[in-house]
Design brief:
- The protein is an alpha+beta fold.
- The protein has 16 helices and 41 strands.
- The longest helix is centred in the C-terminal third of the chain and has 23 residues, at 458-480.
- The N and C termini lie far apart (70 Å).
């Protein structure tokens, strides 16, 4: 076994590899960019070395700099994690040439599967089912348009290199093909340095089911069962689970055999994933092979009781696979979701900023957390905005879903916006609960999973105000206990006033709107009013996590957390309500998005300008396309009108809130 391993990655996966190495007594070496000098993977590793600037191209994609550190630190092996250089043939070969083990497949295997077109041609010769389409080298736009017409619509344009949903577009009409092709090629070039694409017939309402495969240097290849990844948004996986609620034993066996055949076709060594598109009829087609560890590998680990990073290390050190196919025994059900710094209500716009509050559930036999940041860290603009992976496990799927809902309810992120409320709605939606979701469902019905700008019910406002009052009374009581005479009646922090019953105003903000609740009373007994609605609250108790009280005689038990700045409450349906506390007698409405200008929502690069000064545009018309945090963002007109000026050109890097377009009055 290796004694010193360098991790050529960052964030969550780097921390995850470090944990296994530490358990095995392996010394770890980290590398970091300027933006990651204080990152958790740097703090967890035994040694860490800088390798360049904040952009991936200046640091984590610099194979030469990483190899120089490996030689300097005496690393015997390099673990690439996922992303960055994990599927880079040249880097894997350079490691081998330097006498350093690459903890992954042989360079030839990466090369064979690195091109979707070449991989499909290879799979065809080994009898692995393929979706009809074009996988050739001719990338002329007119030729591709002819091939698209031959394949038929709807079809999928996919980047020939890379994965992760980048460079993928669904085209339903021939007239839309040229624009979709140009967009996919731009994104493919930006993400992978390769603009080539392939075309495939688009399977309507498909499921995405992948198989974990493992091979060793002795020629053994096995699969470790499937993962269902059909809950996706814009080809990005949102929820992953195993076992799949769709597969029966016969179909599982057939797909497992095809996955092993695909791996054997390239003499595969190490951890890999063979991904399939599965039609509603049960037909399955090879989609691609990821020659690395997947983000969602923990669900496989929990149901099999294995550590796949340990397997990677042992195989790379020349050891045989620890188990044979017949020894693989699964039990229970595991589900993973990814907590992201993004705003679902703003088309999942990636976020950045300091994590002012990061509360996650306590790890247990039912809950696992794989993260790369802690409270106080900053989510930067340069990398994927994932905060943590939340994985749950239980005896069966219904209980695992219940564990997931409980774990999500315990999460709280303050600073950049997060997708927690979106995930909570997802886990309660019938299409997920019943296991019927397909890869396009979220994009077709996204409004079913978004909270929207809806006013909270009155009972939620009364409950939030009750929690706020109890918090304030407790805080005031604590403050007075330190006085010179704690028995003085003036030290009592209740609502008693000379000559009248005490009136307090609790002001709460929700989606930029102000809500005022008048309250009379103290110590858990209040008469409240919000507008024309009134409520008698009695017997209220709050232990910091649970509020129990009677509202007009009806008892409720709600999950509530409150302090001087906010109230976080889950209503009776499990819906999350995050209400900011405001000053009782000072209010200024939040400025709207500014109808006379279009600003950059975050730092990024302008990749396309689709309008000019003097143009008459309609509300919602696309004016610019911006690339930020590995995504293309369409920036649209906030209103109809005449453009006065354009403040950026194609290729420009712009800062957040930079004015990109001004409208004439």
């Amino acid at each position: 076994m290796f004694e010193r391993v360098l991790i050529a990655n960052r964030g969550e996966i780097a921390c995850r590899v470090i944990r296994t190495c530490r358990r095995l007594g392996i010394r770890t070496i980290a590398v970091y960019s300027e933006a990651d000098a204080d990152a958790q993977h740097v703090r967890l590793a035994d040694e860490a070395f800088p390798i360049g600037g904040p952009r991936p191209a200046d640091s984590y994609l610099r194979g030469d700099a990483i190899l120089a550190v490996a030689k300097k630190a005496g690393a015997q092996a390099i673990h690439p994690g996922y992303g960055f250089l994990s599927e880079n043939t040249d880097f894997a070969r350079a490691c081998s040439d330097a006498g350093i083990a690459f903890i992954g497949p042989r360079p030839e295997s990466i090369e064979a599967m690195g091109s979707k077109a070449a991989a499909k041609a290879l799979m065809e010769t080994h009898g692995v089912p393929l979706v009809p389409g074009y996988h050739g080298d001719n990338q002329d736009g007119a030729f591709l348009a002819k091939q698209a017409a031959k394949t038929g619509f709807p079809l999928m344009i996919k980047a020939a290199a890379g994965g992760g949903g980048k460079g993928m577009r669904i085209v339903r009409k021939e007239a839309e093909f040229a624009d979709a092709l140009a967009s996919a090629q731009r994104e493919a070039q930006s993400s992978f340095g390769d603009a080539r694409v392939i075309l495939e017939r688009y399977v309507e309402h498909p499921r995405h089911i992948e198989f974990q495969v493992f091979g060793d240097t002795q020629g053994h290849v096995i699969h470790l069962n499937e993962r269902e990844c059909s809950a996706q948004r814009r080809y990005q996986k949102v929820l992953e689970e195993t076992p799949s609620p769709f597969l029966d034993e016969a179909r599982r066996a057939a797909m497992g055999e095809a996955a092993v055949a695909a791996a054997k076709a390239v003499n595969y060594v190490g951890a890999g994933t063979v991904e399939f598109i599965v039609a509603p009829t049960g037909e399955f087609f090879f989609m691609e092979m990821n020659t690395r560890l997947q983000v969602e590998h923990p669900v496989t680990e929990l149901t099999l009781g294995l550590d796949l990073v340990e397997w990677q290390l042992r195989v790379a050190a020349g050891e045989p696979l620890p188990l044979t196919q017949d020894q693989i025994r699964a039990h229970g059900h595991a589900i993973e979701v990814r907590l992201y710094a993004e705003d679902p209500e703003q088309n999942f716009l990636p976020g950045s900023g300091k994590l002012l509050r990061l509360r996650l559930p306590a790890p247990s036999e039912h809950v696992r957390l794989d993260g790369g940041v802690i409270e106080g860290d900053t989510v930067t603009i340069f990398y994927d905005p994932m905060i943590a992976k939340l994985i749950v496990f239980d005896a069966d799927r219904p209980r695992a879903l219940l564990r997931l809902r409980e774990a999500l309810a315990a999460c709280e992120i303050t600073g950049p916006k997060s997708n927690i409320a979106f995930l909570e709605r997802l886990t309660r939606h019938p299409v997920v609960v019943e296991g019927h979701i397909d890869t396009g469902y979220l994009d077709r019905h996204l409004d079913e999973f978004l909270v929207g700008d809806v006013a909270p019910p009155d009972y939620v406002l009364f409950a939030a105000a009750t929690a706020a009052l109890l918090h304030d009374e407790c805080a005031a009581m604590s403050a007075t206990r330190g006085g010179s005479d704690p028995h003085s009646p003036w030290a009592q922090a209740d609502a008693w006033r000379i000559g009248h019953e005490g009136r307090r105003l609790v002001a709460l903000e929700h989606h930029g709107r102000r809500y005022e609740v008048e309250a009379y009373g103290h110590a858990g007994h209040y008469r409240m009013r919000h507008g024309d609605d009134r409520c008698e609250v009695s017997g209220a108790r709050h232990d910091g996590e649970i509020l129990s009280a009677r509202f007009d005689g009806d008892a409720l038990r709600l999950a509530v957390r409150a302090d001087a700045s906010r109230v976080l409450l889950h209503d009776v349906d499990g819906q999350r309500h995050h209400l900011a506390r405001a000053a009782a007698y000072a209010w200024q409405s939040r400025d709207a998005a500014g109808g006379d200008k279009l600003v950059a929502p975050m730092p990024g690069r302008i990749v396309l300008v689709k309008a000019a000064a003097g143009d008459e545009v309609a509300e919602g018309q696309e004016l610019l396309v911006m690339e930020a945090m590995k995504m293309e963002l369409a920036l649209k007109a906030p209103r109809a009108g005449t453009i006065e000026s354009i403040g950026a050109s194609q290729g420009d890097f712009v800062e957040a809130d930079a004015v990109l377009v001004r409208f004439a009055e």
